[in-house]
Specification:
Layout: E1 3-8, H1 14-27, E2 32-37
Parallel strand pairs: 1-2
C-alpha cells in the first residue's frame, strides 16, 4: 500500500490546516497518509 508523509512548518496554524486537508484528500484515495510537523520529524 502506498504511503504519504506531508511535512509542514507552521507558526500560525494555516499551513497545518492545509497539510491536514491534503492528508484527508490522499486518504480519500485509499492511501495511508500522515501530517508531521517539521520539528517533530525523524529520519531513520
Amino acid at each position: 500500500m502506498p504511503k504519504v508523509v506531508v511535512v509542514y512548518l507552521s507558526t500560525s496554524g494555516n499551513t497545518k490546516a492545509m497539510a491536514n486537508a491534503i492528508v484527508e484528500g490522499v486518504e480519500s484515495k485509499n492511501v495511508e497518509a500522515v501530517a508531521m510537523n517539521f520539528h517533530e520529524g525523524k529520519i531513520y
